[in-house]
Amino acid sequence: MVASAHSRLANLQRHFQTSDNVGKDGLNGGNVKISPEVAEALSRGDAVVALESTIISHGMPYPQNLETAKEVEAIVRNNGAVPATIAILDGIPCIGLTTKELERLANLGTKAQKTARRDIAYLVASRGNGATTVSATMFFASMVGIPVFVTGGIGGVHRHGEQTMDISSDLTELGKTPVAVISAGIKSILDIPRTLEYLETQGVTVAAYKTDQFPAFFTETSGCKVANSVLCRPNLFLSCYICNAVLYHEYLTSNCIVIYVFYFYYLGRCEHPQEELTKTDNNTDIALVKNNALVGAKIAVAHARMRQ
Ligand SMILES: O=c1[nH]cc([C@@H]2O[C@H](COP(=O)(O)O)[C@@H](O)[C@H]2O)c(=O)[nH]1
C-alpha cells in the first residue's frame, strides 16, 4: 500500500502539471495537464476514477452527451471520489476537465478525433482535439497513477476478425497497462468468443460481476462463460456486491476488466433481448449506454476507495 502510494507520487512528480503552469505553447515538453482537483486528490492519495471521452464525442449526440458526462462525474463525486475525464484539447492531454472543457468537447462531438493509443502523438503534435478511447485513456491514467477507470463498453474483436484482423487496441492495452477497467462488456456489434480468446492471449483477467457469463452489453447472457465470476447471494444489497467484487479484484492482478451486469438491480428486467446483438454503433440505445456508464461509475468508485 505504502509502496504503491510512493510510486504514484513519484509518477506524479515526473508528470505533474496543473492549469497554472502550462507553458505558452501548451505542449509542456510532451507532458500532460492535470486539473488542480485531480492533482490534489492524487497527491493526498484520495480515490480518483478515470473516465474516457469518446463516449462524449462519439457515443451520443449533444446535449445528451454533456448531461451524461456531468451525471457520471456527479455520481463519482457523490460517492466520495474525484472524476478525471481524459481528453486532448489543443494538443494538450488533459487529466480532469473543467465544466467549460467538458462543454467544449460535447459541442465538438465527432469533430474531436477519436483517439486511440496510436493517435496520441499525432494529436499532440498537430495540437488537435482528441476524444480518448479506452486504450488512450488507460495510457494516460496509468501515466499519472490512476488505477481505476470506468467506461460503458470496451472495444474488442470485430465480427469476421479472423479475416479482417480488426481488433481494438483496447485489448492490447489491457494486456500491458495496469489499470482496472470496469465496463458493461464489449460493444454489442463485436465478436464475444474471439474477444475472450484474445483477452486470454493477452493475459487479461476478466472477472464477471454477479454472473458467470461475459455479458453482451445490453443483455446478461451471451452464452460465453468467463473463467472468473463474482457471484453473490441475490438478497444482498448492492454495496455488498460491490465489496465482494472489490475484494475479489484486489486478489487478482491489477490489469483486470471487471464486467458488471446492471439490470438485475437497476432496470429490474431485461428490456433488450438477443436482437440487440445485431445493432450497429449508430443505433445503440442512448438510455442504456447511459445506464451502463452511470452504474459502472458507482462500482468504479467502490474500487477506487477500497484501494486507498
Ligand atoms: O458503445 C460504445 N462503446 C465504446 C465506444 C468506444 O469505442 C472504442 C473502441 O473503438 P475501436 O473498436 O475502434 O477500437 C472504445 O474504447 C470506446 O471508447 C463506442 O464508440 N461505443
Automatic annotation (TrEMBL):
Matches recorded under Pfam families: Indigoidine_A
UniProt GO molecular function: hydrolase activity, acting on glycosyl bonds; metal ion binding; pseudouridylate synthase activity
UniProt KW Lyase keyword: yes
The keyword Manganese appears for this protein: yes
Cross-referenced InterPro entries: Indigdn_synthA-like, PsuG
Keywords attached to this entry: Glycosidase, Hydrolase, Lyase, Manganese, Metal-binding
One term under GO cellular component: cytoplasm
PANTHER family given in the database record: CARBOHYDRATE KINASE PFKB DOMAIN-CONTAINING PROTEIN (PTHR42909:SF1), ZGC:136858 (PTHR42909)
Protein name as annotated: Pseudouridine-5'-phosphate glycosidase
Organism expressing this protein natively: Aquilegia coerulea
